[in-house]
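User: What would this chain look like folded?
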Amino acid sequence: MTEAARLPAASRLRQLGRGVRLPKRKRREQLLAVAQDVFAANGYHATAMDEIAERAGVSKPVLYQHFPGKLDLYSALLDVHVDELIVAVKEALSSTTDNKQRVKNAVGAFYDFVNSETGAYRMVFESDLRGEPAVQAAVDRATEAPVDAITKTITSDAGLSEDKARLLASGLVGLSQVSARYWLDNHNSISRDDAVSLIATLAWRGIGAGFPLQP
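Assistant: Here's the prediction, encoded as structure tokens.
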């Protein structure tokens, strides 16, 4: 099981106080869950390792045993969120053999990620630390890995060359990312399901009608 898959369970560990001994993996999950809350509330630059340690109920040496510095902690958390997005897109593509539904599911995966209460998408798509190589690599992976997954599906089902399939996949990912972020900021009058249906219909009429399933 990936760290991303385990992180939701770690949210239940947030309230553990001092003196509670946890296995190394569980402690790491707890620290990531607490760090997410603090980074979401304060932003990267205003977040202090002291506050994370205090809220997690551990000493600073314990925190530093798991994460040597604030950037290491932030990068690890960013990787978890990127993994969550990648898993969601891959599951959307593998959940059905109906390509129209695949497109809708893939779009929905981005909307669900952007609409998460954790605010993870802001860390991934609106990070102000892109000058840091580790952060930039994670941000790039959030786009490149979904494009890779969708490219593989289009190449297999539509019989297109990889270059053409990758261009279409990049278009679908870009459409999903940008529209989801716009919707989140302006979604009072449009439900999540209606928004996903609108964007999926736009994408499907282009991909599904222009590049039908090959026999």
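The mean pLDDT is 86. If you want, I can go into more detail on any region.
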